[in-house]
Amino acid sequence: MILPLLLAFAFQPPDPAERTALLSLRAPVTEPWQAQEGYDALTYEIELSVRPESCTLSGAVRMTVLLQAALDTLIVDLSSALSVSEVSLDYVPAAFSHVDDRIRIPLLSHGQGDTLTVLVGYSGTPVAGGFGSFVCRDRDGRPQFWTLSQTDYAHTWWPCRDTPSDKALVTMTVSVPYPADSFSVAGNGILEAMEEWDGWTTYRWRELHPIAPYLVSLAGTDYVAIEESCVSTAGDTIPIRHYVYPEKLAAAREDFSPTSRMISAFELWYGPYPFRPEKYGMAMIGSSGAMEHQTVTSYGDVHVRGDHRFDWIVAHELAHQWWGDWVTCASWNDIWLNEGLASFSEAVWAEHCGGDSAYRAYMLSQDYLLTTGTEFPGTILNPDYTFSITVYDKGAWVIHMLRQLVGDEAFWGALADYGAAHAYDTAATDDLRSAFEARHGGSLEWFFDQWLTREGRPRLALSWERIHRFDGDSLTIRLQQLQPGEAYRLPLELRLIGAYCDSVVTCEMTSSSLETGFAVPFRVDTWELDPLHKVLLWVESGPGDPGESPPPLVFHAPRPNPTPHPVLVGVDLPDERALQLSVFDMLGRHVWSSLPVTAGPGYTALQWDGWASPRTPAPSGVYFLRISAGSDSRTFPFIRFNEDVRHTFD
Length: 650
Known about the structure:
This protein is an alpha+beta fold. It contains eleven helices and 40 strands. Strand 19 (290-291) and strand 20 form a beta hairpin. The longest helix has 30 residues, at 336-365.
């Protein structure tokens, strides 16, 4: 098990309403893009000339593909808003059609198992889709452009097989009509070369690891760079390079300053940063929110304020480098694997800064019902809204509940196994489940089914009964699930709370109602369900005041015995009775009696202070204590000794 080093980092949790507004219900996905099956893109070489002032581009993309099936036509995705000037197969001009955002290329002499090179030349003005797949603007007289292709909008600006399930190696050579001292272009991976010529500058970015099309990114304006580095747990130096506006340099330097510490923290939990030979950085764009492009997050300029208000976004996007970029969801139906783990990672950063209490407080801040009074809408798996608060924060709760269910050692081990098995590749929900089942040692199908495919959460009504006894309380606790549909399976903790102590007990609810009992050696004043917030549930009512049940009549022996001090004789009463305690010596002579008292159901104790009369202590010896409860009574032997007698034997 990997334990975090708790460091005194300042951490500012997000405003729940602000965070919710950024994450909630962006746009429904009704018809996701369907790329052609039957081939695998292996590499892309993208060569582009971009003119931000007119928002036009021209260039060519050379791709190598492996035919996995016998295809008579190869389909490459590219927006019909762009004009295709040439297509070739293995450097031979080829016939093609370009309709409905698809280039169709007849395959005359290629068969299953063949690898071929496809070249597409094109130009035009991209029509942005999604969250702004290719955007240009004038920023107070300074040209700017950026890309943001999630979900399936990479084909709006470059030809590709546009699906998250097909990763390839990508090189981008991008030319812009500006000198390098007034304009720079950020991209994925490492900057292999930069060349200035005739007022233009060309940048060559190479991604050394497979990348999904939606994660391919360019961003350009008059950036200045913030450069630093950190040392990975693997021993490598990780370059950190942020591309920021000159006018926001000071604010960005402050807001992005936790990046290296966050990398070190996530390496403790998730393993070495996956793109160590390349870099990690952020490039400011003219948008709200942020996007985890591989090695270079696009970061909304409105969030750069210099006050760390959006540290949670910095942590979220960085965590995506593991969960989203290193391991990418195989389809958008599994997007929670990306977003749920990244949102959970915000809480992990809080834990790294402030310990377990900060972690659990952060998880509560991600409970949509708690913060807004509204339930998480829809399901996590196959969501109606791809980027909804349900996918992000209920997804984070599923990861959190897995951690509570299997324990830290199995949890972090399962995440490591999941990452290693799907490194630089894609994964589906069943892959995550398999990794956790292997570490847990049993099926977790029930867990994934009830939390991923159902809407809402369990809602419970609580009640209890208490029997107060001499040696503590006996409790009967009742739980009732109120939500519609079948019952959730809920491993639960209950904290039984007394005036001076408490106790945590466990139970498992497998049907809509549960009645369970506990005995504890103290008076229970109240109790709390799920005190550490390990389960996403809602208590509709209770526990409230207990129903009091009387105990059976039980007389309890004197305590302490022997003693020179006062002694207690107790009784559990099933009903109201008159009580009296009487003391007799060895010869049956009456020594002392209490005044009669009336006591109700429950435990009551009567006390003898050891006096035979108001002024005379009883001598050391054996006595008999008789406690009467109405018509019932019980006599107990008792040894009393005075302090001076005890000391003669010391």
